[in-house]
Design goal:
With 164 residues, this protein is mostly helical. The protein is built from ten helices and no strands. It has two domains: 79 residues, Leucine-rich Repeat Variant (Alpha Horseshoe); 81 residues, no CATH class. This is RICTOR_N domain-containing protein.
Length: 164
């Protein structure tokens, strides 16, 4: 068993919360290591298969979403290849921890504010979010306004799009 397999198979489900947190924290550090990217990509896919964002501890979920946020804009590893957006939205709709919900909103925000997206595409993405989970869509709107992640004008337009 390789070190990465040991980390994924054993340490990511360890009974000690700090050990599970260290797995996600360490994986985030590995993202900057060019020689580890192939192993890192495979490990991330396994790690987020049934773990991380579904962990029973909100601190572990927070670190898992911080790791996913570190993938946004990564040159070689694509977020969409590690975890599907519908899973993120489902977790977002059920998440009770405010700090984790904020981290999820930060993760989702670039999908709706990418430069060059046409207004029609933004609306289409908002509709998809609303269809997947109305709760997630409304929570997302609330958080991006409350945390000043988006201007009030843009958020108002976003809110109108959700209601339509």
């Amino acid at each position: 068993m390789s070190n990465v397999e040991h980390i994924i198979d054993n340490l990511s489900v360890d009974s000690n919360v700090n050990v599970r947190i260290a797995v996600y924290d360490g994986m985030r550090d590995l993202l900057r290591c060019a020689s580890a990217l192939n192993a890192c990509e495979r490990a991330l896919k396994c790690l987020f298969d049934n773990r991380g964002i579904n962990d029973r501890c909100d601190h572990v979920r927070l670190y898992a979403f911080q790791l996913l946020n570190a993938l946004v804009g990564h040159r070689f590893i694509k977020l969409s290849e590690v975890v599907k957006m519908d899973r993120i939205l489902k977790v977002f709709a059920l998440e009770e921890s405010d700090i984790v919900r904020k981290e999820i909103a930060k993760l989702l925000l670039p999908s709706y504010t990418k430069p060059g997206l046409s207004p029609d595409e933004v609306i289409r993405r908002i509709i998809v979010m609303g269809r997947e989970s109305e709760i997630a869509a409304l929570s997302f709107h609330h958080i991006i306004v409350a945390e000043n992640l988006m201007t009030i004008e843009h958020a108002g337009w976003f809110h109108v799009s959700i209601i339509k």
